[in-house]
Amino acid sequence: MNWIALICLGASDGARVENLLDSATQLLALPQARALRGCSELFGDRHRPHRGGATVNLMLALEVEAGLTIEALEREFKRIEAAFGRQRDPRRAMPVPLDIDLLGRIGDGVQWQPRYDPGRAYLYHGLQQLLLPVLQRELDRVAAKRGFAPEQNASGFYGLASAAFVERYLAASATRRSMQTEMQR
Fold first, then answer.
1. Helix and strand counts by DSSP (H, E) for the chain
2. Residue 9 in contact with residue 62, Cβ under 8 Å?
3. DSSP state letter for 111
């Protein structure tokens, strides 16, 4: 059975918006990718300003084939990050041109990666925009357990481009890629 990868893309240096959109396009083009099941708006985060401005984030729900392992998907993330100029720093120094993280997966329910807390404001804000019923139930549980009102969690974030824009951009990129492939044949 295929599973859904819950992916957070972030950029805090350079052409942040372009890096997020172009890297999302590359993720959707992976041979193991099956379908985009949801995306958030592109949003800035006033909580984490860095040299050059705020961090910009994008969340994706990407359906991938059943045989793809978490480790293999994370290797693809690192490959894509490196292509955008990301250099791994053991101190996790910011800013970076691109950061891609697998927050969790949806298969039989939602399983979070241990190193990510879906209750962190910027993660919750983006994940809440992925309109997948099983994810929404899990986020409601997280909010109830933590005692916060989801609608109050959005302060400090600002939308740069709507989820509908992101979806149209990704669909147009896939069409262009398909046409280029056909022309090369």
1. 5, 7
2. no
3. E
